[in-house]
Amino acid sequence: MSKLARSMWHQLEPIHAIVYFSPEAFEEAAALGYDVESRWPAYFAYRLAPLGAVGARSAASACYSFSPGMVAEHVPAAWETASPADVLRARLTAVDRTYRTLLGDALDGAELAEAAELAGRAARSVTAAGRPLAAANLDLPWPDEPHLALWHAATVLREHRGDGHLAALLAAGLDPCESLVSFAAIGAAPVENFAGRGWSAEEWAAARDRLAARGLVDDAGLATARGRELRDQVERMTDELAAGPWRELGEEGAMRLAKLIGPVLGPVFGSGLLPMTSTLGIATVKAPD
Hints:
The protein is an all-alpha fold.
């Protein structure tokens, strides 16, 4: 079931993540007063608003791999620009506008409604204990319209997986910066792609030195056999911790969901809004036929 959990993450992550890149999402954030010259003010506001008006430490804890200094540049100032309740309303409006642009008349199809029902079943089944972002999104009202319900379910499921991933990193003894350095070391993405997480060159080098002292990277910063083994352990644990909702839905239900969201993924990928190389280690893949 852990393999199915990974496969479904690849299918659902783009459905959620489009809100951090669409023009409509930036327009809604700008209307609230956020600076949209960079995507980060809107990102932190949209992602963290379900938690309420959190402070810098809580925000950095939830956004584990970001530099605490970078997070503190945006939170708690985000809540001085707009309240979490206003941000949540704008977020849902942004999702609605984005998907109306991408899908048009397909929003009214029976297959999208079925996809929303299946994804909702999986999302509502998650165990929220120890999963603050998943729990916070579960506490929000469930949207009625199928495209919004599908996005909301995808959000709960990706945050459920993400919360579990942080537990796996902690179990592996990888601090926030080390988690990125070790990921780059296995070739998951070029080192420069991680610059947006806010770590300085000195902090990155210090994290690499700590990993080298543990025998996890070599002098060139590339993963050793032990380093690859540890990252494999992290990914296995992440998949295992994310498997619960897919046990609930079952393999047949999950494969039906993957098929149904194919017509959503096509326009999402075709929009060109998502980055081609992600720091998540997720590929641009299509749903199975």
